[in-house]
Amino acid sequence: MHWTPEDIAFMEKALEQARMAAKTGEVPVGAVLTNAEGKILAQAFNQPISLCDPTAHAEILALREAAKRAGNYRLLGCTIYVTLEPCPMCAGALVYARIKRLVFATHDPKAGACGTIFNIVDNKYLNHRIQVCAGLLAEKAQKLLQDFFKQRR
């Protein structure tokens, strides 16, 4: 896959968000959501523990902020960059938000819902499909996750 310089820069920002999650004891997942013009609408990291909210995944928090800033729950033409393949909850939310493109770093063999275990973002029964690009800076994201879980054991 050919990655643009913008793709790489936005994924680096998502990795910065993931590092912030790790510093607070959260699973290191970060997200950056851009509009159709390539401007950042939202950035977020996992916070279900600190917010005491099981839905406070990086993608959900980014979607909430972006929708507020855009003034619309439909985020047409937007791209989201995530350090880990979205889970079923997040994948469903991305579909309902009408995200155009999902770029994620590493696959999630336990809960990946964008091609690994499920494929919610490209399901013929849903009213929207998302273009998925996987593997951007995967090694960096994998190392961040591995280091986090090694420290917790």
Write the topology of this structure.
Layout: H1 5-23, E1 30-34, E2 40-45, H2 58-70, E3 79-84, H3 88-96, E4 101-106, E5 131-134, H4 138-152
Parallel strand pairs: 3-4, 4-5
Antiparallel strand pairs: 1-2, 1-3
Helix pairs in contact: 1-4
Q: How would you explain this protein's 3D organization?
A:
By secondary structure, the protein is α/β, with parallel strands linked by helices. The protein has helices at residues 5-23, 58-70, 88-96, 138-152; strands spanning 30-34, 40-45, 79-84, 101-106, 131-134. Helix 1 (5-23) runs parallel beside helix 4 (138-152). The model has no long low-confidence stretch (mean pLDDT 97). A 5-stranded mixed β-sheet has the order 2-1-3-4-5.
Counting DSSP H or I runs of 4 or more residues, the number of helices is 4
Q: What is the makeup of the main sheet? A: 5 strands, mixed
Low-confidence stretches: none
Strand order in the sheet with the most strands: 2-1-3-4-5
Our measurement of the CA-to-CA distance between the termini, rounded to an integer number of angstroms, reads 35 Å
Mean pLDDT: 97
Oligomer: single chain
Helix content: 25-40%
Cα-atom radius of gyration: 14 Å
Shape, per Cα inertia axes: globular
Assign the structural class, choosing from mainly alpha, mainly beta, alpha/beta, alpha+beta, or little secondary structure: alpha/beta
Number of strands: 5
Beta-strand percentage range: 15-25%
Helix and strand pattern: HEEHEHEEH
